[in-house]
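Hello,

Our lab assistant flagged a job as stuck in the queue for most of the afternoon. It eventually completed. Since we weren't sure the result was trustworthy after the delay, we are filing this so someone can double-check. Below is the sequence as submitted and the structure that was eventually returned. Let us know if re-running is recommended.
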Amino acid sequence: MALSTSISSNGVPSFHKSGIIAHVTAEQQAKPAPPLDYQLLLLSLAEDYFAAAHSVRSLVVSLHQDMEMCRYYKLIATGLGCLEAVLKVSTTDSTVS
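-- returned structure --
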């Protein structure tokens, strides 16, 4: 089963599961899920936010609308925030070990 992301019209990434759902046995349900790699998730989200900002940029340039410009800056800032969180965790991990 694959997990895909898309950017909604308001600039927020959403996640969709696609594929065939197989029969889950009791043994599979009892097995704990592997830990989530938050750094990889944040990097992926940052990439999605930057892609959304890139698509909005053409509207900002052509229409000079303040609302679209604000949306563009918000998407860039959110993507940078994701990158900053990854760097903080990486820096913290390297100083601890």
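-- support follow-up --
The delay was a queue issue, not a problem with the job. The result is valid. The chain is about 65% helix and 10% strand. The chain has one domain: 2-96.
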